[in-house]
Design a protein that fits this description.
Elements: E1 8-19, E2 22-33, E3 37-41, H1 48-56, E4 63-68, H2 78-81, E5 84-87, H3 99-107, H4 116-122, H5 138-150, E6 156-160, H6 168-183, E7 187-191, H7 195-201, E8 204-209, E9 212-217, H8 224-227, E10 231-235, E11 241-245, H9 249-262, E12 270-275, H10 279-289
Parallel strand pairs: 3-7, 3-8, 5-6, 6-7
Antiparallel strand pairs: 1-2, 1-4, 8-9, 10-11, 10-12
Length: 294
């Protein structure tokens, strides 16, 4: 077990959620340690947002044990709310206010907030601090969502698809900012459809599909050793594409080249390639094995 309830920011056992006959979560177990970034991956409809809403105390579980910063979200005292930061999947109502005004307002709700200028700098909105929020671009509004989620200096941050709408440079800036948060001891639970983001940011990743977490490991160990066996791909003389996993790809390539030359193909098989499976390949194999839609 990765962490105990006492040291964990999040500890969940047997989390179940259903709506009538529709089962969304079916016995989810999850631990996130303080200072850890955990990426929860899964296809649309897998229950990622439902899981986060239960942990935030927004939605009631059908069954299971849930502890977040040592409290049950549905019965936690008001002060507990000030210890968590939430960046929801969609931008909320911003009203006729500027980023500086909104961050200042949110900062007043917390006992030990970050400075407004510090937050604006962290999320890259310093030059837009006095622009009405409704006039910001979609990506800039998303940065503002992040700003409001971290201004209270939370011990635990929920990030639900946080970089949707970010350009590549903005995503990299966000990654650097998040690394700064975790270096201060904050735990992060992240959902994302960007596999490179999960690979870069997460200490561990879990794959949620079919209502359960079907795999959990560090990004470089997800799926186990077999999932990372090199893949050799090529087209044969008839133009048919083949793929084969091999622990000895060099020997397989030699055999394919010899066979091609016997058929008069001096340059060997067409489109011959050897690659190691990326996190995305392993992820798709995991959700495909459960019958989930890709």
């Amino acid at each position: 077990m990765h962490s105990t309830t006492r040291s964990a920011a999040i500890s969940v056992r047997g989390l179940t959620k259903h709506y009538g006959d529709r089962q969304i979560l079916d016995g989810v177990d999850l631990d996130v340690a303080r200072g850890e970034t955990y990426a929860l991956l899964g296809p649309n409809g897998a229950g990622k947002s439902t899981t986060i809403e239960v942990l935030e105390g927004v939605r009631r579980a059908s069954a299971g044990e849930v502890s977040v910063l040592g409290e049950h979200p549905m019965s936690a005292p008001r002060a507990w709310k000030s210890r968590i930061g939430i960046v929801a999947q969609s931008t909320g109502e911003l009203g006729p206010y500027t980023p500086r005004e909104l961050i200042t307002r949110f900062a007043s709700l917390y006992p030990n907030p970050r400075g407004v200028d510090e937050v604006l700098e962290l999320v890259g909105l310093t030059q837009h601090a006095k622009t009405r929020a409704t006039k910001l671009s979609g990506g800039q509004q998303r940065r503002l969502d992040v700003a409001l989620g971290i201004v209270g200096r939370p011990e635990l941050v929920f990030l639900d698809e946080p970089t949707t709408g970010f350009d590549p440079e903005a995503r990299r800036q966000f990654w650097s900012m998040l690394a700064g948060l975790t270096s201060e001891g904050a735990a992060v639970l992240l959902t994302t459809h960007y596999l490179d983001e999960a690979e870069y940011l997460a200490d561990r990743v879990g794959v949620l599909t079919g209502g359960r977490i079907v795999a959990e490991a560090t990004p470089d160990q997800l799926g186990g050793p077999e999932a990372r066996t090199p893949i050799v791909s090529w087209r044969d003389a008839a133009g048919v594409r083949h793929e084969e996993r091999s622990a000895a790809p060099g020997l397989l390539v030699e055999r394919l080249v010899d066979e091609a030359r016997e058929l008069g193909l001096a340059e060997g098989p067409a489109e011959l390639e050897v690659r190691r499976p990326a996190l995305e390949d392993i992820y798709l194999d995991l959700i495909g094995a459960t019958g989930a839609e890709r």
